[in-house]
Amino acid sequence: MFVRRSAAVLAATAVIGTAFAPAALADESPGASPSQAFPSALYGSTDPTYDGVWRQSLALLAQDTVDVKPAKKSVDWLVGQQCESGAFAAYRPDPSAKCDAKTKVDTNSTAAALQALEALDASDAVTGAAVKWLKSVQNKDGGWGYFPGTPSDTNSTSVVIGALDAGDTDPKDVPSKDDRTPYDALMGLSVPCDETGGGAFAFQPDKKGKLAANTDATAAGVLGALGEGLDTDPDEDGDDKASPKASRCVGGHPFTVEDAAANGSLYLAGAVAKNGYLKSSLPGAEDQPDYGNTADTVVALAAAGRTADTEKPLAWLEKNSGTWAAKSGPAAYAQLIFAANATGTDPRAFGGADLVKQLGATGPAATSSDASTAPANGKSDEAEASDEDDGGVSLWWIIGVGLVGGIGIGFLLSGRNKKQQP
User: Fold this and answer.
1) How far apart are CA 220 and CA 158, in angstroms?
2) d(Cα 168, Cα 405) in Å, to the nearest integer?
3) Rounded CA gap, 361 and 215, in Å?
4) Are 396 and 24 in contact, with CB atoms under 8 Å apart?
5) For the chain, how are helix, strand and coil distributed in percent, rounded to 5?
6) Is the pTM of this model over 0.90?
7) Are 44 and 389 in contact (CB under 8 A)?
8) pLDDT at 60 over 80
9) What's the half-sphere exposure (Cβ side, CA atoms, 13 Å) at 317?
């Protein structure tokens, strides 16, 4: 799932402070300064401060999904970002320096890295430490917030569920101090059927405890409720998926996590039924298509067994996502590969584009792959020019929107507003 994430927004908020400084947006050069160099093992060429581990994890996981073996140095770089505690921060420029209280470790970076490293058969010491740390920062309600100790949200809880599952840990066997499971937390974030947006997931309750439907959180929540990770193959556990024939929101008692997943997938199906894509309502801007959330929705619908409902949004992505992905970089290409994989679509012929090759061109040449992957000289000229907006949109634009709107994290780094509307 995806980070498209406004996870970068939340991390930036913590670094910059509680007030929004307009001067931050006045700088039109969000990338590296001429004298600043980033690791050659890293995917993408823009400042990794807020999304380095996330975009690296998605890139490596997506390559593994299509049977491409990533460059060893790229995997080693990701492993080297881990703190002794087992946690990961968004980015540590000097991995040789020990993590301390000032190191902003977070659940999303840790969970994404764990999913990628499990897929790549990293050592048990690395993955086991990440699982142990995630368990140690679980909230009493069974869920997780972006930073340890922050209130649980659907997106963070869901990406951690996917990581635990990847680490051979059943989320049902991870109770909190109050004996609540991660699934209990997700059910508590499912909007009741008799309320506006019924069936969807909320990101978090508002100050009055009310749940507001959020398509980004819903895409994440469906995957989490199904116990799925960022990359899912709906054929593996098809018998356990939500019914593709569900036509109404199910409430009442007992209410199960399977009900929450079915309700969420039904909501998403309705959200993309008209136009084939989701919109993102950003402060001060007109509604515009949200490519990342649409890609995540395809994955969620496929995982829930609603194959027919993926056809329209998938076709829309094949036709329209090329420019967005080129501007957004590795995380965006990974999201599209996940969407293609979940629906049995060839990512090497996605609307006439070879997503695998395009992703490979944003980082080091793969260790082994077929002829359609990146050239041996690493990043292509196109990738270098277009990587300006890693994660979905300009990083500083994401930060500005997040600080102005007071939003939290998204599902995969696309800078989407938490008050999106389908």
Assistant:
1) 6
2) 38
3) 31
4) yes
5) 45, 5, 50
6) no
7) no
8) yes
9) 33
